[in-house]
Design goal:
heterodimer; A: 622 residues; alpha/beta; Glutaredoxin; Rossmann fold; Ubiquitin-like (UB roll); 4-stranded mixed sheet; 40% helix; B: 164 residues; alpha+beta; 4 strands; elongated; disordered C terminus
Chain lengths: 622, 164
């Protein structure tokens, strides 16, 4: 830790001075190795790479300044672990332990590029040296993720050197709370947690509400499966979230904040805790921030593992030590939220956008995006695309550019079927709407929603009825059970979908599902219940033929629902190796040496063992 | 009795006895004991002057709390959307079949507790399984079972060492 030797900062000028000092300390010839330790790269062993680089730095006798940094998610998780070298911004991908010595010798000490670790464009075969040359990064625009992959999230000095807490200093030294709100209003920032509610309007309502104390909350209960945007920000750039919260608290008039973090993210808790300690020590958080009369502090709470706690009133119930059951919102939480006091809740990504808005101005922010959706949005592009990872794009970009240019198209040469956005309560968007623009209203029109930013790509092998069943099953388990439509409606819909995927569907099931969906949307208590039928409604809307095939023909077109397709052996591909025959638990396969094997359909139990075991992919699903 | 009283007292003091901090208190208790023993919950209820029924309402609402001891190892399988699309369902089935353990349960020999969770946020490298916090990515039913049998051997080795 380099900064903690410094005394508490007592003014905006102190902070500027510190920033200049930190920047001056950095010599232009210094080398820097940045190892991504975001969730994807960490799962592939990057923390060990970081250790090895640190050891190499310590051992070297060379007369150059070298620094190794562990940084947050860089985005292209598919190609992880990722290592970046300065100067030159050289991008190495799929780095393994034995490569560390080579990178150190060749690139860091020798200024030479290690060709084999560069990213290769699969279409042209061209190698890219820097991230800017890679299409995946070229199409993106980074605001919320600007510091990710650049700074060491455990060092507040790194954040300050990159311009951190300057927005806070500006706010405290030269802006009134009303001016801050007006700036955010001019930016046109809308809630990134999924609701898309105008942030400035929420802040103003909370500021004007009667009652004190007032609370601000950061919702880090990222419960949507298939989404890790907030995790990446909390772990990769925690100070951006904290700075955003302090600015918001100043605008609203709050002295106490909470960050509610999902139980499954222990590292996020650790990083945020450390960041809060460092911020307090430096005087940008706590009593009399930067010598002003404004005081504000933050407490971290861990969730208990309940999806519904992402809903604002349920989250507040959980913060009060109660089961996370939502309440009806005829009284808004900005008037009566946590402990019955005015409470302003925003999502991690929303908070992380605030410092950039203050620094560059609302006008700058609103110049990006579409008429009603401004700025950028972070998405987790995952599923069956070539380049999976974390991406940030300007609002208004088409889905096609995200899937095809950034994502690199569908993996394995398969055909695109749908992209699922908005988490479990979102919907599936089919190929014919790939040219739709990504913004809050456009996605809602298509029967899906922006949600918090999961974007799951599905190919031709995905059965859409099963997708609907998966999400319904998820929501049925996570329903808190307080209101009847959600508790009973989801169980009933799940029961129908179970039957359909088993081949026991009846004519009229689809209409029954639609009726229940309608009822749920109109009568459920909270957003979880009201939107819970979206996966079913959107798959019926765009993939009705798949439902009909399951119900009327007892056939699964994607060949995923067991029992609704058959296995056959391709006699030309079969080498008569006998592996399937040995593994068949039902003795349903016959054949001899040099004679292609055959499945006896009457004996076959459709277990799929032969399909899994065949080394020549001669077993086909038909 | 005195020991659990002392522990609960420490935890309650850490949060200034604030009833609103009930969830963090129970998280700390679980981190200490590995689960929430009934005696400890009764003790906590007395300390906070909150009915035991309310404690149980909270414990049974949140999936991360457990009322029975956990196994020697903690196995977490992600069943998030992406992991599911990439075959986590069949991995779960294989573990259930092979070790006769249901999600949320513990194997009969207490070797490991098996949790199926909604998403661990490592979707880019799905399917993902965690064993004692260590990530395994791109898991298949075969590789998952191999890893879990590996645990078995470790434990037997450790026990042999212990007895020798």
């Amino acid at each position: 830790m380099t900064v903690l030797g410094n005394a508490k900062l007592r003014s905006a000028a102190d902070l500027k001075h510190m920033q200049e000092e930190l920047r001056a300390r950095h010599t232009p010839s210094a080398k820097c190795v940045r190892v991504c330790t975001g969730p994807g790269c960490a799962a592939k062993g990057s923390p060990r790479l970081y250790e090895l680089f640190c050891e190499a730095v310590e051992r070297t006798g060379a007369d150059v300044e070298i620094e190794a940094k562990s940084v947050g998610c860089h985005g292209l998780c598919e190609c992880g672990p990722i290592v970046l070298i300065q100067p030159g911004n050289i991008f190495y991908q799929k780095v393994e332990e034995p490569d560390v010595a080579e990178i150190f010798r060749e690139t860091i000490l020798g200024d030479r590029v290690v060709e084999k670790l560069l990213y290769e464009n699969p279409a042209t075969g061209q190698k890219a040296v820097t991230p800017e040359e890679i299409t995946f990064y070229k199409v993106q625009k980074r605001i919320a993720l600007a510091g990710n992959g650049l700074i060491d999230p455990t060092n507040i000095g790194d954040y300050i050197a990159e311009g951190g807490y300057i927005a806070l200093a500006k706010v405290l030294s030269s802006m009134t709370p009303e001016e801050v709100i007006s700036e955010v209003e001019a930016a046109g920032l809308r809630g990134r947690g999924g609701g898309g509610f105008p942030t400035a309007r929420k802040w103003r309502s909370c500021r004007e509400a009667d009652g004190s104390p007032k609370y601000v909350i950061c919702n880090g209960d990222e419960g949507d499966p298939g989404a890790f945007m907030d995790r990446a920000i909390m772990e990769g750039n925690p100070h951006a979230v904290i700075e955003g919260m302090i600015i918001g608290a100043y605008a609203i008039g709050s002295e106490q904040g909470y960050i509610y973090v999902r139980n499954e993210y222990p590292l996020s808790v650790e990083r945020l805790k450390l960041a809060i300690e460092q911020a307090r020590e430096l005087g940008v958080l706590g009593e009399k921030i930067l010598g002003s009369s404004f005081s504000f502090d933050i407490r971290i709470n861990r969730g208990g593992g309940a999806f519904v706690c992402g809903e604002s009133t349920a989250l507040m119930a959980s913060l009060e030590g109660r089961p996370g059951e939502p309440r009806a919102k005829y009284i808004h939480t900005v008037e009566s939220g946590l402990h019955g006091r005015p409470t302003n809740l925003n999502n991690v990504e929303t908070w992380a956008n605030v410092p950039a808005i203050v620094n560059h101005g609302g006008e700058w922010f609103s110049s990006i995006g579409t008429e009603k959706s401004k700025g950028t949005k972070v998405f987790c592009l995952v599923g069956k695309v070539v380049n999976t990872g974390l991406v940030e794009v300007p609002m208004g970009i088409t889905l096609r550019r995200i899937v095809e240019e950034i994502g690199g198209g569908i993996a394995g040469g398969k055909r695109f079927k749908a992209v699922q956005t908005g988490g479990p309560s979102g919907g599936c968007i089919p190929a014919e709407h790939l040219d739709a623009r990504v913004d809050f209203d456009e996605l809602t029109k298509l029967g899906s929603m922006m949600g918090s930013g999961g974007m799951i790509v599905m190919d031709e092998d995905t059965c859409m009825v099963r997708v609907a069943k998966y999400f319904t099953n998820f929501l049925q388990k996570e329903s808190c059970g307080k209101c009847t439509p959600c508790r009973e409606g989801l169980s009933q819909m799940l029961y129908i979908l179970e039957r359909v995927t088993k081949g026991e569907g009846e004519v009229g099931d689809v209409e029954e599902l639609e009726g229940l969906a309608d009822l749920l949307g109109g009568t459920a208590l909270c957003a979880l219940g009201k939107t819970a039928a979206n996966p079913i409604v959107s798959t019926i809307r765009y993939f009705r033929d798949e439902y009909d095939a399951h119900i009327k023909e007892k056939r699964c077109p994607a060949k995923e629902c067991r029992g609704l397709f058959r296995y056959e052996i391709d006699s030309e591909a079969c080498t008569a190796c006998g592996i399937c025959l040995k593994n068949c638990p039902a003795d349903a396969i016959t054949g001899e040496k040099k004679v292609p094997h055959v499945i006896n359909q009457e004996k076959c139990t459709l277990c799929g063992m032969c399909w899994e075991k065949c080394p020549f992919t001669a077993v086909l699903k038909v | 009795m005195t020991e659990e009283n002392k522990l609960i007292g420490q935890i309650v003091d850490l949060y200034d006895g604030e009833v609103g901090m009930l969830i963090p208190m129970m998280q700390d208790l679980q981190a200490e004991c590995g689960y929430l023993p009934a005696d400890h919950l009764r003790c906590l209820s007395r300390h906070l002057k909150v009915p035991l029924s309310r404690l149980y309402a909270v414990v049974t609402f949140y999936s991360s709390f457990r009322l029975s001891p956990k196994g020697a190892h903690e196995v977490t399988l992600c069943l998030g959307t992406v992991c599911y699309l990439k075959g986590a369902g069949s991995i779960s089935e294989a573990i259930i079949r092979e070790f006769r353990v249901e999600p949320g349960g513990t194997t009969r020999d207490r070797l490991f507790s098996f949790n199926a969770v909604n998403c661990v946020g490592a979707c880019a490298v799905a399917p993902v399984m965690l064993v004692d916090g260590k990530y395994y990515h791109g898991v298949t039913p075969e590789s998952a079972i191999e890893v879990l049998y590996g645990l078995s051997a470790d434990k037997i080795a450790a026990e042999k060492e212990g007895s020798a």
